[in-house]
Amino acid sequence: MYNDLMKTFTEQSEQFFSPAIKFNQLVAKNIEQLAQIQLDATENFTKTSVEQLKTAAEVKDVKSFIDFNASQLTAMNKLSQQMIDDGQKLTQLGNEFKEHLDAISKDSVKATAKA
Q1: How far is it, in rounded angstroms, from Cα 45 to Cα 35?
Q2: CA-CA distance, 43 to 48, in Å (whole number)?
Q3: pLDDT at residue 12 greater than cutoff 80
Q4: CB-based contacts of 100: which residues, under 8 Å, 6+ apart?
Q5: From CA 30, how far away is CA 97, in angstroms rounded?
Q6: What is the DSSP letter of 58?
Q7: In the chain, what percentage of residues exceed pLDDT 90?
Q8: What pLDDT is stored for residue 110 in this prediction?
Q9: Band of the pLDDT at 101, cuts 50, 70, 90?
Q10: Among the four 2, 13, 51, 105, which has the fewest Cβ within 10 Å?
């Protein structure tokens, strides 16, 4: 009898805490992916900035100054495209989070309806 009571208690506890555990796992995964996107963006920005500093240090005459200005435009285009790509990644990450959260909610409702 005691074993049955503990088994029932354990099963009910698992059912009760399961949605919270799934939600916490989803949030942790989402934070990890967001951090990776931010790290990648920071790395790209840093590389581009350092490249531009090196190019600026090599300016010695009018031709190299013109080349530097052209490289500035290229760098700005590169950074703009990176921002667009990062925005798309963030949008996708948000949509995936919403889909998974909806699935967790539906599962919770189904489990509650069964109980």
Answers
A1: 15
A2: 9
A3: no
A4: 26
A5: 7
A6: T
A7: 71
A8: 81
A9: very high
A10: 2
Rounded to 5 degrees, what angle do the CA atoms 82, 84, 86 make? 65
How far is C-alpha 36 from the chain's CA centre? 6
| Residue 35 to residue 30: CA distance in whole angstroms | 9
Calculate mean pLDDT across residues 55-60. Answer: 92
pLDDT of residue 1: 67
**Cα-based distances in Å from 17 to 8, 23, 56, 65:** 14, 10, 58, 64
What are the tokens at 98? 């919403």
Question: What is the distance between the alpha carbons of residues 28 and 97, in angstroms, rounded to a whole number?
Answer: 11
Burial class (CB in 10 A: 0-12, 13-18, 19+), 28: exposed
**Rounded to an integer, what distance in angstroms lies between the CA atom of residue 56 and that of residue 45?**
16
Residue 51 in this model has a pLDDT that exceeds 80: yes
Written as one letter, the residue type at 26 is L
